[in-house]
Amino acid sequence: MQTATVYFTLDLLCFPGIYNATVEFDYYLQSNNGGIRKTSVDKISLIVENSTGSIEFVTYGWITLPRTPPVYGAQLYIILRNVGFPTLSNPVLKMKLPSSVVESRTNSSEPLLIPLAILTPQQLFINQITSNNIFQLLTQFVQSTPTSSVSKGDFLTFIVLLNIEENYTVLNIPCNLSFIDHWGEEYYVSLNLLIELLTVPPVLNIYPESPLIVFRNGTAFLDVVVENNYSVRVANVYVVLIPVSGNAIPINSLKYIEKLEGRSRVVVRFELVYNPVQIHVSSIPASFSSAVFQTTLIYTDVSGVIHSINTTLAVLVKPFIEIILLPEIVAKYSKGILSVNGIIANIGISTAKSTVIYLKYSNLETVYIIGDVEPSSQLPFRLEITTQYTSDKCTLVVKYRDEYGIEYLLTEELEIQRVFEESVTTTTVENRLDVLKYLVIVAIVCFLSGVFYVIHRYVKNTSKRMMYETS
After folding, report:
1. Total domain count, the chain
2. Domain span at residue 237?
3. Between the CA atoms of 31, 33, 39 and 42, what dihedral angle is there, to the nearest 10 degrees?
4. Which helix (H) or strand (E) holds 300?
5. Which of 50, 88, 164, 354 has the fewest beta carbons under 10 Å from its own?
6. Three-class SS of residue 15?
7. pLDDT tens digit string along 322-381?
8. Domain holding 405: CATH number?
9. Under 8 Å between Cβ of 149 and 115
10. Cβ neighbourhood burial of 99 (10 Å; 0-12, 13-18, 19+)
């Protein structure tokens, strides 16, 4: 039993379709010592296939998503599939790149590419190729299954490195795939690839919204701005705030942003707790005047690649000074003198420097210099003004400065307690005192007179008795 194969070349008006044909076989049948010539006529169908769609463009992607142009060495992968040829071999892809785009290695605008790997449908399905792992997987397949033959249904994977000078949004790349078909002839298939140039921001900006944070009752808020100044969105953004200086500790150091659109910004708020640590400079304790944080930004770009950025944020810690006047403060007016007595206290955690208290009444003003008021300290004060009584209110102003020389004012309006002079009562008391004084003098004079009189009588009687006795 033998089989013979006969080839016919059809090269005239061969349009795609199915054609009816007749094949006539004329042969000589040899039998015993003789033979007979026979003729056989058979009807067959000639199928002329359409080469359009025989090579299918499956997908493309960026192994490392390029940054905003100009960019160099952007890695683009292209996957094609053989859907029309039983087998093909030695495929070569010729690309015609647009202006200002060249292949990185050769600096050519018409590079020739050979497939980095040829994958079966089973291999592609099992490994689920993505932008994150395609290069490693293709390298693995190249090392394990080197081949240049492509069966029907196999995938051809090409990788090209591009230098892109202009800010394209879509690359229109005409391509020509040449190969040896199953007939042993060279075949060409034209393709047109539309590649969307998804660019990723070089760096997302992250910075504090204000360079100053203020602690009140031991807590403060730090607003951090995450800014995307580019046209492409990012998603699954994580912001991690790690304290470095140790004087400000975030309560929740992790924040999540679901999506950050292109050319937009978002503000995330961290609540901080004050930690009163101190440093010693030449044995003199000093508090930190700034807070330093290490910030990690993790996000996913539009191709699914995960990026991370590490940076440092620094803010000034505004000295927390809270000066209050205790409720025991009293303002009195008596005998032409306005006096204010009170106690000033600093319930903050920083020193109030150059503290001065002003008392203002009508057009007059007096000052009382206190100096530095330490945290958790209380100092008494008294101010007086000699003036006419013109109003039932006076103004007390406290001026002080922080460590940066910034001046603060505390103003409080006080009600004046007026003390009236009781002139009638005073006169009566004074008259009574004068009468009492005179009565005391008279009593003393009478007492002394009586004493002298008694002594005189005693001396006189004694003298007479002695004279009688002598005579």
Report:
1. 4
2. 205-317
3. 20
4. strand 290-300
5. 50
6. coil
7. 899 999 899 999 989 999 999 999 988 788 999 999 999 988 999 999 999 998 899 999
8. 2.60.40.10
9. no
10. exposed
